[in-house]
Amino acid sequence: MWCRCIAAAAALAMLPVALLASPSALAEDGYDVWLRYRPLDQAHSAAAAVPALAAPASTPAQGAARDELLRGLGGLLGTRPALIEKVDRDGALVLGTPASSPLVAGLELDLAGLGEEGYLIRSVRIGGHAATVIAANQDIGVLYGAFHFLRLAQTGQSLSSLDLRESPKVKIRVLNHWDNLDRHVERGYAGESIWDWHRLPDWLDPRYTDYARANASIGINGTVLNNVNTSAQALTPMYLDKTRALAGVFRPYGIKVYLSARFSAPIEIGGLKTADPLDPAVRRWWKAKADEIYALIPDFGGFLVKANSEGQPGPQDYGRSHADGANMLAEAVAPHGGIVMWRAFVYSHEEPDDRAKQAYTEFVPYDGTFADNVLVQVKNGAIDFQPREPFHPLFGAMPKTPLMMEFQITKEYLGFATHLAYLAPMYEEALRADTHARGPGSTVAKVVDGTLEGHALTGMAGVANIGVDRNWSGSHFDQANWYAYGRLAWDPDAGSREIAQDWVRMTFSTDPAFVAPVVDMMMGSREAVVDYMTPLGLHHLMGRGHHYGPGPWVAGGPRADWTSVYYHRADRNGIGFDRSAGGSDAVAQYAAPVARQFGDLATVPEEFLLWFHHVPWDHRMASGRTLWDELVLRYGRGVDYVKSMRRTWDGLAGQVDAERHRQVAVFLAIQEKEAQWWRDASIAYFQTFSKRPLPKGEAPPPHTLEYYESLQFPFAPGDGK
Amino acid sequence: MWCRCIAAAAALAMLPVALLASPSALAEDGYDVWLRYRPLDQAHSAAAAVPALAAPASTPAQGAARDELLRGLGGLLGTRPALIEKVDRDGALVLGTPASSPLVAGLELDLAGLGEEGYLIRSVRIGGHAATVIAANQDIGVLYGAFHFLRLAQTGQSLSSLDLRESPKVKIRVLNHWDNLDRHVERGYAGESIWDWHRLPDWLDPRYTDYARANASIGINGTVLNNVNTSAQALTPMYLDKTRALAGVFRPYGIKVYLSARFSAPIEIGGLKTADPLDPAVRRWWKAKADEIYALIPDFGGFLVKANSEGQPGPQDYGRSHADGANMLAEAVAPHGGIVMWRAFVYSHEEPDDRAKQAYTEFVPYDGTFADNVLVQVKNGAIDFQPREPFHPLFGAMPKTPLMMEFQITKEYLGFATHLAYLAPMYEEALRADTHARGPGSTVAKVVDGTLEGHALTGMAGVANIGVDRNWSGSHFDQANWYAYGRLAWDPDAGSREIAQDWVRMTFSTDPAFVAPVVDMMMGSREAVVDYMTPLGLHHLMGRGHHYGPGPWVAGGPRADWTSVYYHRADRNGIGFDRSAGGSDAVAQYAAPVARQFGDLATVPEEFLLWFHHVPWDHRMASGRTLWDELVLRYGRGVDYVKSMRRTWDGLAGQVDAERHRQVAVFLAIQEKEAQWWRDASIAYFQTFSKRPLPKGEAPPPHTLEYYESLQFPFAPGDGK
């Protein structure tokens, strides 16, 4: 991390000045992520001066907060604060809980309502001196407050007259690692898993600590270590001991570990003949397994389960329901305070008439039957993390069940790590969608944060984009998606633009001449991906298996709903999946006002047009153009946006270190090439149905459709294994 | 690399001194490998002062030498030399070829005999000033000389009165990467492949340049990018373009790229029905493929081939010989100056009476029939990179054919990356072995360097231990094996102790109080692995498939020679593989004096005892102990050595940075645990045959044999895929 180079500077302080004339660029490899405590400029530095710090460190969690402030303020301000016990000068920073700090106790602050994780930051006077206090009910709240204070300093905000109260709106804020035990990361584009299982529990890579710091800084309080498509081996004593070691690293940072549980584990590692959730021996096995885990890890979070989906085992194998399966596991972890996150991403072996309908069909009947410590984890949309999907119809449809949001941070369908696509606007779009479940204003965010139906147990999951790549996420800009996910999990009502502003300032520069164009570029980047991959509500058109590049021609294979033609349904008449009442009637799964809006060609938003309707090629769009012309133009608009991002970025060359600038520039060049490929291949393909000319001025694809179809990428990263 | 923190120091030079009091340790994550240009102490620094540098930089190769000296001397001496055109002061360093540097040309040095890659370093006077010249016939020689000069400075040697002449004794000095195109590294214990194929050719990771620098610094001049078990995809235009991009990065550093060629590629990617090497269409296909490659990469090195071995396709599939196969490929690359490296590591589908005999049996008859640009690549021993093997009987047995040595740098059979085992003594042992092919003194080194039979085309291959781990090799000490391999490829007569001394000084410290114990520790470390895994000539006793941990009980499965029992043959009477005249008679493949020595129980060296003989449990050893007692004691001796390494290392805590010290300490603890496991499991197993008590004072294994046999490691790293 940054402090290392601080230390290097210390070691070299005695060297001749000539040495310091090294022409090499200041190294910026992205490892620091947004915890980049580089010196502030003089004006900010003076304004942010913190000469002294009164911070307890009698527990590891307290030590984490104190050390982070020493590291952060030392880096940002050029001077490490003096550690004090008494406030004897102006400008001290005082932190703690009433229990850990007599100074905090003496202030008699109103900490009620902050809960276990909340904190306040306030400008106060102590013993006649101006001071800032970070106070909370628990150590973890103090750590969160410390990170918030550092963020204020990093982003150049005033540190005087502070009066902030913060507590998270969502209780369970977890990353889901789709990491296999062999370190392959399913849908990972940042190298292999950071979990070095083979050398655990002995070798604790310092990276684990930096992972915990980064997550704690954005309020993430849990991590599911292993893929939802998991081996049962993860639950064997050998692996539980490795998990115990990781839990020990994460504990001071308020991060609980969770494990994905393979439903058939009682057979595979338990020696039983069945995994039937109503079988007493199976229930005993899971209870014993939970007891074994909690004996090793008293604060173990619980289980995440993918059951009866894409070939995974589950309760339906025994004629039981999802509720039967989830409740069995819930019963096992309940005595220890654990939870079960049961995924609603299901589809059966039989091909349904419309896969979009299946989760709703399978889960709604069980509303009210899940145990109190079960959350049902629902993807933002009903298909699978497409660049744009309408909100999942389950939100609002299971009022008696806490529904967790599952977002995908890794960009399985949005260009892998090389494409610059800031996902927070996509998350925001889903969270702000109005389910109308209890009338207007029944947003998905209110379902997720529990306020709509009064659930106390609430959660949000993000499928991690983290790997061993030096910059963690495979690209510098993908760190923003990790960051934004954490901020939105803490506060689902936060704004994606404000989050981007913070991230850019913390990660790159506080110079407004840099921040403004970069934030603008980010804010439009996801819409550009929608345009050049799947405009106007198209979806699931990518290459088979690895999901790399365009594949609108994908057909055949083991099941229809793994093809592209199933979803776009292009023919001589038009294009799109008719999910209106005249088609699959998936719209009927939404509340009536939503169903009416989506189900009517006249009122459906154009961005969902082809999601819900099969539309004639000559359908007249709001622009006055035909659908075909509009489609072609949208593809081109996406490519143009990438070109404009390149221009913007190239123009910022002097304002960011050369190392990161170069990588981003090369990746944008790759993105432009691939955006063009998506546009060209898609147009070449769909034109075989539309049989219409391209709009005037639109360049024809440079290759034949056969050429695009011939491209093969057997070693594309992140494929399922 | 180090220069980054130098740069950081520069950026921070203006910061208050208080900042510099950061308690963090100076970061040492191993990324710099031995090119660790940290400041020398004052005495050395003064002695090594280089105030000025006269170096041409009109080609990339020249620029590489100049930049390395600026970087290295700037780091080591605290002052970057001034770049000069004329020698106008004492102490200048002058480099170049007569063609690139008028100053060098003016010295009229005797460069004859240095060849294309050699160089001289000499203290001279130019225009009345004392100077040092690094001169060569070609740019690459100058770069090698620059690295040699830096090594002298790094290791604290005198830089005055220099008069060195160096040229490599071996022509082809290559790394073999067993890297798959999906980035899995077969037998890799340092993370996945550093080749980010997916983002090539666009994104050229700066790591590729650092890889080239590290290799050039030890004289490695070629790299085979892909696994010998390769997909034919590596030869498709898409991948050739990626290879072209890598070749461009490596070219200035004198490193040629080679590719492993799948023998059946004409079928798999060429659309032919056969890969018969005598088929004209097949020959045309390979010629066209070679032409295609050389059009992209004019200095492409050639092909490495694993054929008819472990299921790989090859000429025998068509009733043709290895020579037929090799010569076909040789014909394709010959017009372009390319070579073919044809591996002798073969064994047929049929199980032979003794796998150790097979390569000799298959290859010797073809001696003299290989094309001029073919090298036959032979592993150091006849089985497979075991901790100890007698030298391969092919060495000395194919006088008309250039035989390349193939060493394994990655520790497939020596504890993966976590065990500290310095392999240079093992390499040295093989190279110094006397084949007696042309009488006494016919060492393997002389076969490899071509002097025994007068071959000009010579080569050495090392199976790389490189991956994306921050320290490249999975552990700090495994970097020494990469380093030592390079030094021995350059000079097969170099000494492993001297190499270790250089490496320790460059990598850690020049303090004799550190260097001496660490070098001692390294020098005995491989013998310790032999002791705790496979003492007294035992071999191939590891876990099945992944090769992790002990598996002397491994039996059954697809073929006998993939089991342990095939090799140790323990029974109630004794243990060992009888390869004497009364057994498989593998000894007969050696020259008569060697065959006599190895074949006679009375004269066979004890370290090869059970390799060549089945020996009764009560056989009396040189120590006076019975074989059984000796075996048990050797196992314990290996464990004890690891314990002594831990003591040594713990005692050096203050003399090395905390970061590397900690990782090495943890890895040594893992090594002790695993050495003990090897010892205990092996004794528990062999005692079921010997039925003898342990020698007095030897602790019994703490677990039952059944326990050891029950351990499963399905996700151990590096398995074949």
From TrEMBL, chains A, B:
<dbReference type="InterPro" id="IPR011100">
    <property type="entry name" value="Glyco_hydro_67_cat"/>
</dbReference>
<feature type="active site" description="Proton acceptor">
    <location>
        <position position="412"/>
    </location>
</feature>
<dbReference type="GO" id="GO:0005576">
    <property type="term" value="C:extracellular region"/>
</dbReference>
<dbReference type="InterPro" id="IPR011395">
    <property type="entry name" value="Glyco_hydro_67_aGlcAse"/>
</dbReference>
<dbReference type="GO" id="GO:0033939">
    <property type="term" value="F:xylan alpha-1,2-glucuronosidase activity"/>
</dbReference>
<keyword id="KW-0858">Xylan degradation</keyword>
<feature type="active site" description="Proton acceptor">
    <location>
        <position position="384"/>
    </location>
</feature>
<keyword id="KW-0378">Hydrolase</keyword>
<comment type="similarity">
    <text>Belongs to the glycosyl hydrolase 67 family.</text>
</comment>
<feature type="signal peptide">
    <location>
        <begin position="1"/>
        <end position="27"/>
    </location>
</feature>
<dbReference type="InterPro" id="IPR029018">
    <property type="entry name" value="Hex-like_dom2"/>
</dbReference>
<dbReference type="Pfam" id="PF07488">
    <property type="entry name" value="Glyco_hydro_67M"/>
</dbReference>
<feature type="active site" description="Proton donor">
    <location>
        <position position="310"/>
    </location>
</feature>
<feature type="domain" description="Glycosyl hydrolase family 67 catalytic">
    <location>
        <begin position="154"/>
        <end position="472"/>
    </location>
</feature>
<comment type="subunit">
    <text>Homodimer.</text>
</comment>
<dbReference type="GO" id="GO:0046559">
    <property type="term" value="F:alpha-glucuronidase activity"/>
</dbReference>
<dbReference type="GO" id="GO:2000886">
    <property type="term" value="P:glucuronoxylan catabolic process"/>
</dbReference>
<dbReference type="InterPro" id="IPR011099">
    <property type="entry name" value="Glyco_hydro_67_C"/>
</dbReference>
<feature type="domain" description="Alpha glucuronidase N-terminal">
    <location>
        <begin position="33"/>
        <end position="149"/>
    </location>
</feature>
<feature type="domain" description="Glycosyl hydrolase family 67 C-terminal">
    <location>
        <begin position="474"/>
        <end position="697"/>
    </location>
</feature>
<dbReference type="InterPro" id="IPR037054">
    <property type="entry name" value="A-glucoronidase_C_sf"/>
</dbReference>
<dbReference type="Pfam" id="PF03648">
    <property type="entry name" value="Glyco_hydro_67N"/>
</dbReference>
<dbReference type="InterPro" id="IPR005154">
    <property type="entry name" value="Glyco_hydro_67_aGlcAse_N"/>
</dbReference>
<keyword id="KW-0732">Signal</keyword>
<dbReference type="Pfam" id="PF07477">
    <property type="entry name" value="Glyco_hydro_67C"/>
</dbReference>
<keyword id="KW-0326">Glycosidase</keyword>
<keyword id="KW-0119">Carbohydrate metabolism</keyword>
<dbReference type="InterPro" id="IPR017853">
    <property type="entry name" value="GH"/>
</dbReference>
<keyword id="KW-0624">Polysaccharide degradation</keyword>
<protein>
    <recommendedName>
        <fullName>Xylan alpha-1,2-glucuronidase</fullName>
        <ecNumber>3.2.1.131</ecNumber>
    </recommendedName>
</protein>
